[in-house]
Amino acid sequence: MRNKSLILMTICAALSTGLSAQSIYPGQHAGKMKKVTTAPIQVESFDLKDVRLLPSRFRDNMMRDSVWMTSIATNRLLHSFRNNAGVFAGREGGYMTIKKLGGWESLDCELRGHTTGHLLSAYALMYASTGSEIFKLKGDSLVTGLAEVQAALGNGYLSAYPEELINRNIRGTSVWAPWYTLHKLFSGLIDQYLYTDNKQALEVVTRMGDWAYNKLKPLDEPTRKRMIRNEFGGVNESFYNLYAITGDERYQWLAEFFYHNDVIDPLKEQRDDLGTKHTNTFIPKVLAEARNYELTQDNDSRKLTDFFWHTMIDHHTFAPGCSSDKEHYFDPQQLSKHLTGYTGETCCTYNMLKLSRHLFCWTGDAKVADYYERALYNHILGQQDPETGMVSYFLPLLSGSHKVYSTRENSFWCCVGSGFENHAKYGEAIYYHNDQGIYVNLFIPSEVNWKAKRITLRQETAFPAAENTALTIQTDKPVTTTIYLRYPSWSKNVKVNVNGKKVSVKQKPGSYIAVTRQWKDGDRIEANYPMSLQLETTPDNPQKGALLYGPLVLAGESGTEGMQAPAPFSDPALYNDYYTYNYHIPAELNTTLQIDRKHPGHSLQRTGEELIFKTSQGNVLKPLYDLHHQRYVVYWDLIEK
């Protein structure tokens, strides 16, 4: 406990002094790219180090995440790698010295090592966003250990499992997903180089790339097509990124090697040919196409990315911004039949937010920012348990279900790995910029240092509990530029004041309010975004619907009756219980809601300053991200009021 307190104090000190996922977005990492973005773009991303979170629920989540990730000993994360390379020696198998990781990191799990890759990224993101040396030290120690393992293996290969798993994949024999796991290592090492300037990480990852090229170059086309039927994550995105950093065309060849014809070709033809396929196998492959477009201007890659994104958002996404049922697609015209306890795999939303960032850089489209906000608040923010810092695999939408959290020692699912990153990158999409000005996309307390204009923008807000946000300009000398305030599709009659004087707002919801002037130190913008209650029904059943307040999905509190220990946590004694979880939902659980469809705001009453609503039936509703350790209802059985 004392160690955790010291970690927290160190992080707090650094925070008083911003955030992106394992991808490369236009405008980032100047000077570290041999191949820069050549595709036309509308806006650029800020570097992670230029954004700082101010106190808020988002920073609270980040703090909990940072304490958990730093508490995991480096030797534990390296143990399976060292065993694989034969460089570990310990009495009685090391049980006297190394406490083994469980779950998906067990020594006999074929995905072992993926968490180390995710943590390489998460440490890098946390270091960039806080400046705290503890995250750089953790990352450096992992990279040094991995370099020793790679040297022992001898041929550039690096993994926590033997190369025979790759050979099984090439032969087409049964194996889980070895390239998926390697993708996490590739991405994590690349992030260590980009965000912490760890040159050893770049050396290690380029040797991995050389191994992969030598391994795969001799294979014929039938073998290639057979092996990539197995899930490989976004390893092709990592190869495109390695190509961008080094300029080595062998890595571009590797990225193209993992082009999955069966998945991408239908998207090129604008066909929604998703069927019941595995959702999170698709999204990373489209991310690779996004990077291909940015580096080569391949217009097919852009068109299919745009088509896929809109197909997902318009047809395959639930109210909270999540997708999938038991990790798979389903007929979107049967959505109400897929409100199960296994909806909303977190990794899918994690990757859709990454894809959204690329698309927004190309288009500057407010619709993309609207989706990002909805998924961020309703899914990602609520993935973490505020009491323990543990995270959920799914966002269950079955009425009466509850979130099921990981355990500290015996889970390490894919969504735990992406979860380490999720809560280390909340600042990544708050601001963007171009030659004309700066875009304010999210209303999250934060500061951004726009170095090119030599100004800092400080945003202070209690959103979403309050409808206002205030932005203060800090600059040494007057600067003429435009500040683009997002006008969300969920609001109307927005009011904007500059230094207390009203600004005429002629724009409509789903656009940007452009405020151009010469800005001086201390200038202040105040914006008011009225929020209202809206009803979203399922496409196939108008009697099933979810309530939203502004961008927030509201969920009804449904108590804890029937929740049996270790609920709401996963049971390590059961095989993949998150996938077979019995929620023991009480038969008499109330799932009905009387509603005035035309005026849903008449059916609920907000109580006090908190985001708590009550109905005449006695239902209590609050934001889904605040529902923890109890049952809830998101999609109600609607009764006309």
Automatic annotation (TrEMBL):
Domain Non-reducing end beta-L-arabinofuranosidase-like GH127 middle: 437-531
Residues covered by the Non-reducing end beta-L-arabinofuranosidase-like GH127 catalytic domain: 50-428
Annotated signal sequence range: 1-21
Keywords in alphabetical order: Signal
Entry's Gene Ontology BP terms: carbohydrate metabolic process
One Pfam family this sequence matches: Glyco_hydro127M
SUPFAM superfamilies: Six-hairpin glycosidases
Protein name: DUF4986 domain-containing protein
